[in-house]
Write a structure and sequence with these properties.
Length: about 260
């Protein structure tokens, strides 16, 4: 579904030097896979996601989504951001319908589709509210509904639950899993949480610190649908402990190299 080959990307840093955000990254994501991405801060996770979204030009390499080379943003890929990135002046309904408006969908149809998605993410009755009137968790529900409105094949999620409280995060994780289980979506999900990576992912991609590379891909052979009770299983504990060991090793290698 997503094929990433030899992807490299550097930025000019504040001191004028080059920062190598991604270095020769190869990655395949299968159709309908839920892929989670973990790695130290600054290892290039967001850059990788934005490159797939077509939001940043890359220096070399290529990304192919469903047989088509990525040359810019497209309705086949939708992104959900940590800080929600909603239009502050627009209502919930207009925020969700916005992408449809850009695509020329008529008013009646876009409102109907937006209302259905708002109900699906549990926000029926909040259509006329503005983002500032909503909690963080509710704002992210709007972010998810907005991303789904364009009926993407790929959902790119950049630490979507990083800015909400633990209880809300757990609810949103469960809701996202049930949306994904009912859809044919392919999800790439960045997180800082090992527990979240294992609870959600079919595989966990571990990225290493600069230059951003894929250190390892760890399969998560836990049954689906995933229930919370899995968190008490030995296999779950084993995988999270392994991820923690690898991240700690990477941190120490990075420190020793500096
Ligand atoms: N627009 C930019 N201009 C300059 N440097 C950038 C830009 N975007 C990213 N970088 C640099 O590229 C590197 C990778 O950044 P990126 O945001 O992809 O990392 P990340 O793994 O998502 O980090 P975090 O986990 O902290 O969100 C960092 O060193 C960052 O400072």
């Amino acid at each position: 579904m997503i094929e990433i080959r030899g992807l490299s990307k550097s930025f000019v840093g504040q001191d004028g030097g080059r920062v190598q955000a991604l270095s020769d990254v190869d990655l395949d994501v299968a159709e309908n896979e839920f892929l989670t991405v973990l790695g130290p801060s600054g290892c290039g996770k967001t850059t990788l996601l934005k490159a797939v979204a077509g939001l940043v030009p890359v220096d070399s390499g290529e990304i192919v989504v469903d047989g088509t080379k990525v040359r810019g943003p497209g309705p086949d890929r939708a992104m959900v951001f940590q800080n929600f990135a909603l239009l502050p002046w627009a209502t919930v309904l207009d925020n969700v319908a916005f992408g449809l408006e850009l695509r020329g969908v008529g008013r009646a149809e876009r409102q109907e589709r937006a209302r259905a998605l708002i109900a699906m993410v549990g926000l029926a009755g909040f259509e006329t509210k503005r983002p500032a009137e909503l909690s963080g968790g509710m704002q992210q529900r709007v972010g998810i509904a907005r991303a789904l409105a364009v009926q993407p094949r790929v959902l790119l999620m950049d630490e979507p639950f990083g800015a909400v409280d633990e209880q809300t995060r757990r609810l949103l994780q469960e809701e996202l899993l049930s949306i994904w289980e009912e859809s044919r979506l392919t999800v790439v999900f960045i997180t800082h949480s090992m527990e979240e990576a294992v609870l959600l992912g079919d595989r966990v991609v571990l990225m290493s610190a600069r230059p951003g590379q894929i250190a390892e891909i760890v399969p998560v052979p836990l049954e689906r649908p995933r229930a919370r009770s899995l968190e008490r299983s030995g296999k779950y504990a084993e995988i999270t402990a392994y991820l923690w060991d690898r991240l700690r090793d990477m941190h120490e290698e990075h420190r020793a190299a500096r």
